[in-house]
Amino acid sequence: MSIKVLIPTALRHYVGNEESLEIQGTTVGDVVKRLVESHQNLKRHLLTEEGRIRNFVNIYLNEEDIRYLKSTETPVKDGDTISIVPAIAGGVVRLQAPQTRTSELSQEEIRRYGRHLIMPEVGLVGQRKLKDAKVLLIGTGGLGSPLSLYLAAAGVGRIGLVDFDVVDQSNLQRQVIYSVRDVGRPKLEAAKQRILEINPNVQVDTHETRLTSENALEIIRNYDVVVDGTDNFPTRYLVNDACVLFGKPNVYGSIFRFEGQVSVFNHNSGPCYRCLYPEPTPRWSGSLVCRGRSSWYLARGRRNVAGNRDD
Asked: Same domain for 173 and 258?
């Protein structure tokens, strides 16, 4: 039986820079054995001295991890595809199987994220976590627009965008997600299009509205991490209070000329934005709640958190 074997980028120079090879075999182990027999330089990268698959090498059969099948005894048939994914570049590090099943990577995603997969800090498990992650960006301006590009390229599976502005020509010099063709378009419309051009595997949620105390809880509750890229104090305190209420990390950034600040607040119940700056500006005093130091607590927000909504 002829099986297509996809070769990772880091190992292609051992097989004449081929992206894939056709190998005969009846099981996954049989195919791997014949692969290294025909390309001897691959053997030390894929197999131990005893002939077993190395711990840091992950093998997929038609997008399914063979650890969840019959391992190397998994039978194969004509037309099947085997993907070889080294979890790290060099060395022998035991890869612990994930405790819970996470999203599988398609063959296209394995090729796309190949450079991540050979990094010990990411690997297969890390890339799956990125695919399962849900990140909300408040603002798609000078901070949010480049961040959304990098999150999409990295493989974050779901990205939420909150903005209500339109693209202005003056935005183009720093808000790199937009181009000349986008001037006059809603920012979220243009940003979503660009994100999907970079990575069509990403789910993009658009919230074309100003974040307020009326909608903050409803929007923020569905995400794992919230990124505050706004430029006004009321929204910063609003985002902080909602994150504290839900126990979500609040990634904060700000820029002034050639200076910038970045921090992660409320991580694992750590300090929040109000711990650093306790009070908002005098002209705005509304918030949700922050460790008992709130100025007021929306009854509607309390019902939303408890799961009892009044429509």
From this structure: yes
Q: Which two tokens stand for residue 151?
A: 């999150």
Please write the tens of the pLDDT for every residue from 36-59.
999 998 888 888 888 888 877 889
Report d(CA 113, CA 124) in Å as an integer: 9
Give the C-alpha separation, 142 to 147, whole Å.
9
**Whole-angstrom Cα Rg for the chain:** 24
**CB distance 167 to 192 below 8 Å:** no
The domain that holds 53 is classified in CATH as 3.10.20.30
Strand 250-256's sheet: what is its strand order? 203-207, 158-162, 134-138, 225-228, 250-256, 259-265
Indicate the average pLDDT of the chain: 84
Same-domain check for residues 39 and 113: yes
Q: Where are the extended beta strands (E) located within 103-170?
A: 134-138, 158-162
Cα 178 to Cα 161: distance, rounded to the nearest angstrom? 14
pLDDT, mean of residues 70-84: 92
Contact assessment for residue 195 and residue 172, using Cβ atoms and an 8 Å cutoff: no
**Which pair of structure tokens corresponds to residue 63?**
């997008």
306 pLDDT more than 70 = no
> Quick one: DSSP state of residue 166?
B
Q: What residue type is 33 in one-letter code?
A: K
Domain holding 49, by residue range, is 2-124
CB 83 within 8 A of CB 60: yes
Cα–Cα distance for residue pair 277/259, rounded to 1 Å: 19
202-252 per-position pLDDT tens digit = 999 999 999 988 899 899 999 999 999 998 888 888 899 889 888 899 999
Q: What is the pTM of this model?
A: 0.66
231: buried, middle or exposed (CB in 10 Å: 19+, 13-18, 0-12)?
Answer: middle
Instruction: Give residue 282's pLDDT.
Output: 58
3-class secondary structure, 133? coil
**Which among 177, 122, 178 is positioned nearest to 154, based on CA atoms?**
122
